[in-house]
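Design a sequence for this backbone.
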C-alpha cells in the first residue's frame, strides 16, 4: 500500500470469459463464470494466472508504477500517476486470453480524494489527527456493515423468541466470529464498536421480551453488557484493530 497516495487506481475490475456451458450453481448467465457458483473462483484463477505472470515477468509494477492486486476475478491496480498505461496492459492481456473487461464495474478513482471498496473493505486516503501524516484507512465497507446487521437482526427477530436463548447466542456467536475473523484488520475499531453495540441491543431486546421487562432503562439495569458476555456467553468483538495487537507483541 506504499504507493496508495501517489496517484490513481483502477478499482474493482471483474473479467469474464467467453460463452460457455454453465455448471450447476450461480446465476443463469451464458457468458463468464457462473456468478456465485462454487467453481467460479477456481475458473477465474485458472484464466487469470497468466495475467499475474505477465505482470511479474515484464516488471510492469516497476516500469509503470502500477501494482496489481487480484482475488479471483476482482482486481485493483494501484498507480503512481496516469492509469492508462496500466489499463492498456490489462486489456491487451485479457484480449489474448479472449476475455473482456466488465466496463460497468470498472472505475478509475483518485485515491487521494475518493474511497473505493474491495473485497468487503472500504479503502481511502486519510490524515492522522494526531500526527497530521497521511495513511491508507482500511475498514469494513458500509455494505459489509449493513449485511452483518441484517443477519444479526434476522437471528434475533421477534418471531424467534421461542428459540432457547443459549441456542440463539450460539448462532449469533458463530456469525460474529466469522465476520470478526475476516474484518479484524486495518482501521476496524469504529465499525466493530457499532456492531458490538448493535448486537448487545438486539440481545437485550430479546431478553426484555422473554422476561417481560417493559422499559429500556430497566432492561439496561437487568441485562448489562457484562451480563450478556459473562452470564450468557455473547462473543465480544475486539475493541482494537488487529494490527495494534501485533505491534504491541512485536
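Sequence:
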Amino acid at each position: 500500500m506504499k504507493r496508495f497516495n501517489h496517484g490513481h487506481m483502477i478499482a474493482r475490475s471483474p473479467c469474464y470469459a467467453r460463452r460457455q456451458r454453465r455448471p450447476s450453481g450461480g446465476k443463469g448467465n451464458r457468458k463468464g463464470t457462473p456468478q456465485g457458483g462454487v467453481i467460479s473462483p477456481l475458473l477465474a484463477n485458472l484464466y487469470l494466472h497468466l495475467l499475474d505472470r505477465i505482470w511479474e515477468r515484464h516488471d510492469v509494477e516497476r516500469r509503470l508504477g502500477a501494482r496489481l492486486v487480484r482475488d479471483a476475478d476482482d482486481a485493483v491496480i494501484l498507480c503512481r500517476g496516469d492509469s492508462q498505461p496500466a489499463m492498456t496492459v490489462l486489456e491487451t492481456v485479457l484480449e489474448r486470453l479472449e476475455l473482456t473487461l466488465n466496463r460497468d464495474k470498472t472505475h478509475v478513482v483518485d485515491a487521494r480524494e475518493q474511497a473505493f471498496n474491495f473485497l468487503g473493505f472500504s479503502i481511502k486516503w486519510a490524515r492522522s489527527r494526531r500526527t497530521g501524516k497521511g495513511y491508507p484507512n482500511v475498514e469494513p465497507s458500509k455494505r459489509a456493515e449493513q449485511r452483518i446487521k441484517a443477519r444479526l437482526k434476522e437471528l434475533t427477530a421477534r418471531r424467534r423468541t421461542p428459540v432457547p436463548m443459549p441456542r440463539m447466542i450460539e448462532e449469533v456467536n458463530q456469525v460474529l466470529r466469522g465476520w470478526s475473523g475476516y474484518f479484524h484488520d486495518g482501521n476496524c475499531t469504529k465499525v466493530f464498536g457499532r456492531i458490538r453495540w448493535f448486537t448487545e441491543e438486539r440481545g437485550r431486546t430479546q431478553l426484555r421480551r422473554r422476561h417481560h421487562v417493559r422499559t429500556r432503562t430497566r432492561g439496561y439495569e437487568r441485562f448489562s453488557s457484562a451480563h450478556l458476555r459473562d452470564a450468557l456467553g455473547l462473543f465480544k468483538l475486539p475493541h482494537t484493530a488487529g494490527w495494534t495487537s501485533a505491534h504491541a507483541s512485536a
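The first helix runs from residue 40 to 57.
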